[in-house]
Each structure stands twice: as C-alpha cells, then as structure tokens.
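Board notes (copied after class):
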Amino acid sequence: MKNRTVYDENYSPCGYTHAGLRVISEHLDPDEITRVFGMEPTRVLRAGEPCLLKSPELSKDSGWFISTEGVLESLDSRDHLDWILERFASKKKEIKNFQDLGYRVDVSVMWESKHGHDGPTLSPENLIGFGLLDIEVWFDVYFNYEE
C-alpha cells in the first residue's frame, strides 16, 4: 500500500456512517429486483406509499434498497463501500440491464461529522469498483457536533 490512509473502524472524525445501494424507477417491481439480484433488500418502497415513515408525501417511484445500517459498526466509510462491492461486483450485467431500462442505480453514503472537519476517504478499490459498475456514489453529510 503506497502512502494510503489505513482503514480505521474507529475513524475519529466520524460520528456515524452507513452506505446503501438503491435501485429506483417509477415502473420497477421491487420483487423482480430481489429475484434478479438473488438477495433480500433492507427496504422496499412502492410507488404511492409514503416516502418516509413520518411523511405524508407519497412516492412517485418504487425503490429497492440494501444498506449497511445496523450491519456494520465501522466509522470508516470504505468498509461500508467494500461491503456493497463484495455483494454487487459480480452483478455488472444485471446492473447494466436495470440501467438500460432507465432505472437509477446508485450508492449513498450517510456520513456524520463528529467535529466539523475532515471527511470520509474513498479507496482506489472503491473508485474502480463502482466505476466498473457505472454507479455514482454520493454523500449525505451531516454536521451534528457540539462546540
């Protein structure tokens, strides 16, 4: 490993993190996504259901989600991204088929700053892995620290 930041499950700048892969489209059938991927989702959303548990807004899209929330305790987002890649790196054809149907396939990383500085790190393997799958990775960042 040439001058790389070592993975650290106790990454001090982070208060909490998890990541998830999602497949979203107005016309998708979450049960079909489960069948094609051969794994159970963490959550599904069907068009016409409330977007969030406490929201009266109804979703126009259906979605299939798998998340590291409650699965991994690591504060290093790379561990969470590796977990997703371990499950989906061999699913390139299936992901491309969903993308060709117009489904959005992406990865979200929720990252909460502990101190209001620094941030998550991505490994070259994370970048290459999601690049080969043609999947965008985006961050939902929170600053819930106390001064």
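Comment from the instructor: The two ends are 36 Å apart (CA to CA). The helical segments are 30-37, 77-88, 92-100, 124-132.
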